[in-house]
Design brief:
The complex is a heterodimer of chains A (157) and B (434). Chain A has two helices and ten strands; from the N terminus they run ααββββββββββ. By secondary structure, chain A is an alpha+beta fold. Chain A has a six-stranded antiparallel beta sheet with strand order 1-10-9-4-3-2, with no helix packed on it. In chain A, strands 5-6-7-8 form a four-stranded antiparallel beta sheet, with no helix packed on it. Chain B is an all-alpha fold. Chain B has two domains: 320 residues, Cytochrome Bc1 Complex, Chain C, CATH 1.20.810.10; 35 residues, no CATH class. In chain B, helix 5 crosses helix 14. Chain B is globular. The chains are: A alpha+beta (157), B mainly alpha (434). Chains A and B meet through loops of A and helix 9 of B.
Chain lengths: 157, 434
């Protein structure tokens, strides 16, 4: 046997290596294409209501205030401990809750919450979210609906 | 004369209509079996069909034409939807006004919208009934397993198409049905919230969601659906036509063999057997029991005109029913979407109301767990039930267990949808509709 014929048995053939690397290249390209498509579809900015907004100086919210801010979907609460923002989006299926004397009611499927957003009844699985409240440099209260905080977190003012 | 053998220019002019017609349609209306074969074989729109169709596939009581009706509804939806696109703008400021314009300023605008709406509901229902037909006749069995899987995927795409279209009128019904529907998707573990954000392009239903749903509804999903429908049709032929009862391929003479000649049956048996094996034809290698060499008598009839008349009837019936429904009933249009005031109760589209009803008991299990298990179960049906018995017959005795389980699922779903549609009032509390 000639040396070339012998080497065919022990070494990978050129065709096999080329096929393998081409296949890996194609699969890699498909993977990158899928990933870049995913990144494309995941918006970096949203054009709806901004998640951070200022609502005014603390003085404009006297003790006992429960002010629903419609388009921002939060209720601004002023209690003994300070200011807080409670989500108005029902944790069940995303409807807007309305404020009642004892707390919040969801008109869609009948979830009921107390004044702190704790579930009193209905299908809601979780209490209403609380959002981060801070003082902006100009002294106004700033709400950040993209940052949830534990229930009962007040900003002392 | 210079051009004695070639036809003169005057002759060409005289025969222009005839020659154009003949270049358009290569075959005259067929009057012979050869012509019937050639017409089916050489026409682009007909060559999807086989030249010959099994008589059993044409029995109205076997298929009820459900597959063809579903596709007819898709054609109606594509036609009316394409027309509606000329007047629609996917913007939260304009969408609802454009809906009103359809009834005010666009000729036939209301009719087109009504047709589109009722055909869409009809397609969801018919595709579902089509699946029931295939199940109850055991038609998903070998070699048709994968076509069943394709069918389940097509059902899901149909639902998703209807769901994305639901948002476009941008009225209260649309806005809150999509809010509720996408919130159900948000309950999926790990990926739920991310999926919802990707679908809506925002944390709440708004302009981004409207645009995304619009593109999915008018471009992406119809293209995917059409491609998969093509494969679905192709597989019907490659799997040997529609399912039929065992033995229906045998010639009548062999089925009712006179007892006196029973002994001579052995002589005929090989002919029947060869039909079951692979055969090599002039078109190449063809799998399945349908392709025969020679002049064996069978239960096949020519597709022209038998199959085509049946399909035309189904299409005409679909158009008729949709048209009459569109003339009699207006598609509902509520007040413009108001993200601050959900209607009480807010309901998802009717085919998701079974889901919503379950969600009111357990958000995860009702909205995600049970539906996912249900779809996975549907996809696996042909791989779990491998018994070859009971194919091609409605409610076969051999399939009593499988059919009973399926009926149970249907009934549960139906009851949940009816409860969700009619028996749920404000705050999702039970009400009596009468």
């Amino acid at each position: 046997m000639s040396p070339t014929q012998e080497s065919q048995d022990t070494r990978l053939s050129r065709r096999f290596v080329l096929t393998l690397t081409s296949l890996m290249g194609l699969m890699g390209a498909s993977g990158i294409a899928a990933l870049s498509n995913f990144l494309f579809f995941k918006p970096r900015v949203t054009y709806g209501e901004p998640s951070r907004f200022r609502v005014g100086p603390p003085e404009s919210f006297p003790l006992g205030t429960r002010l629903p801010l419609g388009s921002q979907r939060v209720t601004l609460v002023r209690g003994e401990a300070g200011v807080a923002a409670i989500s108005n989006t029902c944790t069940h299926l995303g409807c807007v809750v309305s404020t009642t004397e004892i707390g919040f009611d969801c008109p869609c499927h009948g979830s009921r919450y107390d004044a702190d957003g704790t579930v009193l009844g209905g299908p809601a699985p979780r209490p209403l979210s609380w959002f981060k409240v801070s003082l902006a440099p100009n002294g106004e209260i700033e709400v950040d609906t993209s940052t949830p905080v534990p229930q009962g977190t007040y900003l002392a003012v | 004369m210079a051009n004695q053998d070639a036809p003169g220019f005057a002759d060409n002019l005289i025969h222009l209509p005839r020659n154009v017609w003949r270049s358009l349609f290569r075959n005259p209306l067929p009057s012979s079996d050869l012509g019937r074969s050639q017409t089916t074989f050489s026409n682009f729109f007909l060559h999807v069909h086989p030249v010959k169709t099994h008589a059993n596939s044409l029995r109205p009581a076997y298929t009820f034409g459900l597959g063809v009706i579903a596709f007819s509804l898709f054609i109606i939806l594509a036609a009316t939807g394409g027309l509606l696109m000329f007047y629609y703008v996917p913007s939260v400021e304009q969408a609802h006004n454009r809906m009103l314009d359809l009834s005010g300023t666009v000729a036939f605008g209301v009719l087109l919208r009504n047709m589109h709406r009722w055909a869409a509901h009809g397609m969801v229902a018919i595709v579902f009934l089509h699946m029931c037909r295939v199940f109850f006749t055991g038609s998903y069995k070998r070699p048709r397993e994968f076509n069943w899987v394709l069918g389940v995927v097509l059902l899901l795409i149909t639902l998703f198409l209807s769901f994305t279209g639901y948002l476009l009128p941008w009225d209260q019904l649309a806005f809150w049905a999509i809010t509720v529907g996408t919130s159900i998707a948000g309950y999926a573990p790990v990926v739920g919230e991310g999926m919802r954000f990707l679908l809506l392009g925002d944390r709440v239903v708004g302009q981004e969601a409207l645009l995304r749903f619009y593109v999915l509804h008018v471009a992406v999903l119809p293209a995917v659906l059409l491609a998969l429908v093509g494969v679905h049709f192709w597989r019907i032929r490659k799997d040997g036509g529609l399912s039929r009862p065992e033995g229906s391929d045998l010639p009548e003479a062999q089925k009712n063999f006179p007892p006196a000649l029973e002994g001579k049956r052995e002589g005929l048996a090989p002919a029947a057997k060869t039909q079951k094996t692979k055969t090599f034809g002039v078109m190449g290698l063809v799998r399945g029991p349908f392709n025969k060499v020679g002049n064996t008598p069978d239960n096949m009839v020519f597709s022209w005109p038998n199959l085509f008349v049946a399909e035309l009837f189904c299409f005409a019936l679909a158009v008729l029913v949709v048209l009459v429904a569109a003339l009699l009933f207006n598609a509902p249009l509520e007040a413009p979407a108001n993200p601050l005031h959900p209607p009480n109760p807010s309901k998802a589209p009717w085919y998701f109301l079974g889901l919503q009803e379950m969600v009111s008991y357990s958000a995860f299990w009702g909205g995600v767990g049970i539906p996912t298990l249900f779809v996975i179960g549907l996809l696996l049906v042909p791989y779990l039930d491998r018994s070859p018995k009971g194919v091609g017959v409605w409610f076969s005795r051999h399939r009593l267990l499988a059919n009973s389980v399926f009926v149970l699922f249907l009934l549960v779903n139906l009851v949940l949808i009816i409860v969700g549609t009619f028996f749920r009032g404000p705050n999702w509390s039970l009400v009596v509709p009468w």
